[in-house]
Records
---
Amino acid sequence: MQKQSHRGLSIRTVVAIGIGAAIVFLLKRFGSVPTGVPNTNIDTSYGFLAFFASLFGPIAGFIIGFLGHMLNDLTYGTPWWTWVFTTGIFGGVIGLFWKRFDVEGGNFGVKKIVSFNVLQVITNLVAWVLLAPTLDILVYSEPANKVYLQGIVSGISNAISTGVIGTILLVIYAASRTKRGSLKRE
Amino acid sequence: MPAITFDHVNFQYESQAEPTLHDINLTIHAGEKVLIAGPSGSGKSTLGNLINGSIPHSIKGHVTGTVRIGDQDTQDASLFDLSLLVGTVLQDPDSQFIGLTTAEDIAFGLENDRVARPEMHQRVEEWATRLGIAAQLHQSPQELSGGQKQRDAMAGVLIDDGDILLFDEPLAALDPASGRKSIALIDKLHQQLHNTVIIIEHQIEDVLTRPVDRVILMADGRIIGDLTPAELLRSNRLQQIGLREPLYVEALRYAGCDLNQVDHIEDITALDTQALAPTLQHWQDGAAATPPTVARTPLLDVTDLHFGYNRHTPIFDGLNLTINRGDMLALVGRNGVGKSTLSQIITGFLNPAAGHLTYHDGDQKVDLATLSVKERADKIGYIMQDPNQMISQVMIRDEVGLGLRLRGLDDDTITKRVDDTLKICGLYPFRNWPINALSFGQRKRVTIASILVLQPELLILDEPTAGQDWRHYTDMMTFLEQLNQQGITMMFITHDMHLMLEYANRTVVLGDQGVMLDARPSTVLANPEVSVPLL
Amino acid sequence: MSFQLFGFDDQDTWLHHLSGATKLLAFLGLSIIAMISYDARFLAAITIMSLILFKQAHITWRQIRLVTKFILFFSILNLLAVYVFSPEYGVHLYGTRHLILGSTGYFTLTQEQLFYELNLTLKYIVTVPLALIFLMTTNPSEFASSLNKVGLSYKVSYSVALALRYIPDVQSEYHQISLAQQARGYELSRKANLWQRLQGAGKILIPLVFASLDRIDTVSRAMELRRFGRYRKRTWYMGRDFHASDWLTLLATVLIIILGIALFKVNDGRFWNPFR
Ligand SMILES: Nc1ncnc2c1ncn2[C@@H]1O[C@H](COP(=O)(O)OP(=O)(O)OP(=O)(O)O)[C@@H](O)[C@H]1O
Ligand SMILES: Nc1ncnc2c1ncn2[C@@H]1O[C@H](COP(=O)(O)OP(=O)(O)OP(=O)(O)O)[C@@H](O)[C@H]1O
Ligand SMILES: [Mg+2]
Ligand SMILES: [Mg+2]
């Protein structure tokens, strides 16, 4: 009887996925600034996605990214599947390191900030400069120089968004975690 | 076998340095109807969470002693099994809605129990009809009125046929008439289903409109009384812990009646009013006449206001209202009549379809439509009904100081003003806490503090006393009264007729056709056409 | 006021009566085959078919005007970009060169390039009517149950339902926080400059995220108190059984996909080359 409750995702993760995807969707829709390169925006949702992935792990990270991006594309009529998938991968990879960063445990110091940013820059570059454009060429047969340029611009802008917004959210969140047994009426 | 047993239970939240509940011993028998009362922050919701198993299963902390539901120890039982025994209607009404529509929301528990669809449809239909929300089944729960939301939540737990029903502050968001209906409904269900009912409330007067077997009094995390309603009302225990007595009991006491001699004190309808009449009459004759009105100059004119959330249902259709300088104005009216909407129009959160808002800034007349939300906020402070919508910071001190910081004051002044305000609102001991470690009533006070600290010219308070116990409410209202005497104009929205009578010098009753009545509070209460639907 | 993702419009057409799962599978199947195929005839045929379906779903122009403009704008931008970056890409793909304009410079115009971009255009728009049909004829509650039916775990299906449920909520929360902040002294209205407004938006994001974290806790507690996750399966109040029309729709989808794959054989690859 008891075991049944522990199978699969925890309820908290289920809810985090739902609400996280809703936020990614809204940020993509209302929180992006065009860069000038077609279909490439400075997109605040990646900072948020990295934050949620670090809190709720790889599965949540993947689904939040995939779902949020897909819903947004869907309202424009054409889900661009290769990029939808890449957003999911980005969330998933960042999420792999959630135990490492242990944000819930509080104190997200300089060392963690640096390693988080190294991780996110590498992930962003691999995802947007390599993975997404290559998939575009394979699947959609778009010209290579166009998609790689889009990829490079996206990679850089997403790394900036993740670096600024993700880091701020992580630091504030870790600081807000109240230490065990610390609250006293004074 | 008792339905619920607490045996030497202590509980400490993980983040707290000290226990929140101390040595709780309590036995509740099957079929009993029990009221748990106590001041804000005394641990009522925490106790409720121990009963439904949220503690220890989903809220972290340290429990000692044992809590048993029937013969199951809540530590060992799974939350799923417990939820079949105890149905909980949570304190915060909005957070418990899960389904996209009311019907799905009611069915949520059944879905998880793998009940087949036809049976589910039939049971949902049945309970919705029983609770009078069958017409709302396809609406989103967000679109329901306060009373309907509560019925939705009740249907969702009643459908499980649990033995124990737990209501955490079922009245907090309801107008007196709907509140009474809710209590009557709970009572009716109790009589039909014979389950164990536990109601957590500070509005004792409203709960006691229907019979209750016992009242458990809590203060500072301890149970300090376990008595029948009659015993409670004859004693002065409520006053001691800072809770309000029912108005009629207060009246009897003021009138000098010996409460021990009064039969059926717990039931206002059964009171022998004939016998009491002479004493009460005598008292009333002696009561001071209300002070004469002084001529006032207008501060805010609302002229010919039109507004609706959608085209089909206008909320205001040519509303006119003048708020005068120095008013202490109570805005009353039934749930959903548009009180909060009006404040949101005044503060610029919503834009009217037509009409004018004119603000008298000294001798100048300013059209509020030309001012941004921020500019209006420099003159008009607004405390929203739902505290969660206002809170934006993590720590209490930052939240209260936010407005001052944005106005560019220096740190020392900010600290001083914040501390002073926190003291008035009874939050000073918690000043360095994160807001998420506060009880509901405490959160509401944080939002009040965060606006009070700004000392605006006109202050609009939407349900300032919801979820507050009498002591905090008195402290706060006394302070507001002082501010008012220093010249700050106030409009408070309330369902609490005590509050209106005691503190307002003018009452505006909002009805479906605009302002129904604009008079002194006592006149309003004496006008049965207006006051009966309100009360 | 708040934005509705599923502009679900409850009408009485056969498309409204299809199960969400059917529509989802058909949409996914068609959009994947249309993504892979570069056969203009095939893409054009699907486009025409989806426009006919569109008509049958009784969707009005007003409901889709804005989206259509958006899509047109981005498609044109993309097509131009493809041309600017690779004016000779069509030549490279189709292996022949039929010049229309220019000769030696970088910017040439060839029939192959035009044909390639025509294919791209079809790809951009082919699924649009299908997506809009899907969004406007599917009841969001039923959609979650149908995800579960097509094999997604019910927990993931439910998180999709929660996402749909919370998009309007989170949006109005953003709005509320923004107003509450303005009422405390942030100027975020048109009276503020762009930089102030950007900063302000950032200041709203943080409380929004924290409010959402609190909400995750309360909602998951409320769900737990009503036994979500108790068993390996759950039933759905809004579920819907498959009818003949569902099976027929799926059959038609499968046939179209098979046709698309058969064309790969006929064309000797993904590209239909009319120039050879
Ligand atoms: N999640 C939490 N973490 C830490 N402390 C908490 C938490 N929830 C409540 N507390 C503390 O426990 C005490 C009792 O809170 P509880 O919510 O039980 O009060 P209450 O009697 O229900 O009050 P109210 O009438 O205002 O709802 C409060 O002082 C509060 O600070
Ligand atoms: N955001 C909204 N969208 C649509 N309708 C709304 C919205 N907010 C309120 N309403 C509706 O407008 C009416 C007036 O609501 P309002 O909140 O102003 O009532 P109220 O008098 O403050 O009620 P209460 O005493 O319950 O707080 C209600 O019928 C309500 O359902
Ligand atoms: Mg409480
Ligand atoms: Mg209101």
---
Amino acid sequence: MYDKKVVRRRRAVLGVLVAASLLLLTVYFGENGGGFLHGVQRGTSAVFSPLEKGVSVVFRPISNFTHWTGDVFHAKKENKQLKKEVQQLRGQLAQAQTAERDAAELRGLVGLQRTSNFADAGKLVTARVISRSPTVWYSNVIINAGSSDGVHVNDPVVAAGGLAGKVTQVTGGQSTVTLITDQSSNVSAQVMPDGSSGIVRPDVGDPNNMLLDYIQSGAKIAKGDSVVTSGFTSSKLDSIFPRAIPIGRVTKVSPGELDQYSRVHIQPYADLRRMDYVQVLTGTIDQARAQVIK
Amino acid sequence: MIVTPAAIVRLVLIVILTVVIQAAGMQGITLLGGTIDLVPLVVGAVALWGGAVAGAAVGFSCGLLIDLTLGQDVGSSSLVLTAVGYFVGRYGELNEPAHGLLPVPVGAAATGGYLVGTTVVSLMLAFDASLSILAFRDMFLTLLLNTIFALPVFALIRRILRPVLARDPYDRRRRRATAIESGPIGLRGLGM
């Protein structure tokens, strides 16, 4: 009924393609960031960059329309939530202003100089997200700013509301941003106002939930507390993220989990799955180094 | 499918345009809180009209290009999409279906297979990964939207591939319909 030659050829094609996929996966996981496949990835990104930018511009009106429609449906719920948040923030603002004034006076007394805002640590480059994966499993986005805009590898990236990730690949006109929800991400953080520190790690598969691990014992953390960057990473000595970039809000504190695993759950401030614009903090590492040397 | 330079050019263009439109165009379009994923639909359509070999080859190429352009784990998407393309193609070859609404279940099956496959591969590759309600919700919405958009996407791919197809399944359906047409005196079954 079936030609044996055709059957053999069909099975051979399937076998070769599956074997090639497995080989690619093995090589990709086995090599470092400067390896062959990573190089091919960077090259492909650079080649497709103009095409992606063009398609992104063409589809922008449709995208804006669907966002607008979605916003209309969510406006009532969001308005109620924001009013509640404004009430809370008014109280926190008054406390923060008092604390800032006290801190400035104390810094003046001991002759300590420090930037109070993370944006002061470097230059901000605004960029648009031009492509991203549609699934929850991948945490990379491509932005339309690259080395020609002054963006470097490891530059921190912030989105409306908080920390989004860091630049991991740069070409002339675009960059790949690895989000804080990527499995490789570890961000050293502090819980405010308690001040206790820990490491923010992703809960892979759930971008709306992150884990603050390795919290110091005796920490007094409550639901709603803010989590900000503490100014150094867990894997490198140099600071990648400047101090005080908001990361998220504590959403779940379970006494058992806190005691046993030194862990609480947080929700990122930045809407990492829907963000359209980001800001890259360029030059922060150099400035941090300069401050240390000084 | 007849493998000619024209067929290969068409397939290459389909792969490149699908990946670029999905990565840069569709990513910002949210409907009912979810996003359409064109890739499994296109792979399913090529496989259904072109057969298992064409389906597997286009699945592999689309997956590889997605992984390379989006900075994903190279090989993961191509592994899943190769399987999706091959099995949809085999279904088409064995059953030779010609129903007009066939793209709807085939599109849903291709999308479902792709989403489940991607989830399994991601859970195997990622350390300490979990399957959240959000992931389920996203999968359901993508499946729903892809099922809705299957008909136009399959129709477009069929239109592009038609000149290079060995035989068009809809032509066969039309021939079958002609065979049972009415006879010379207007009564069905009395044809001479």
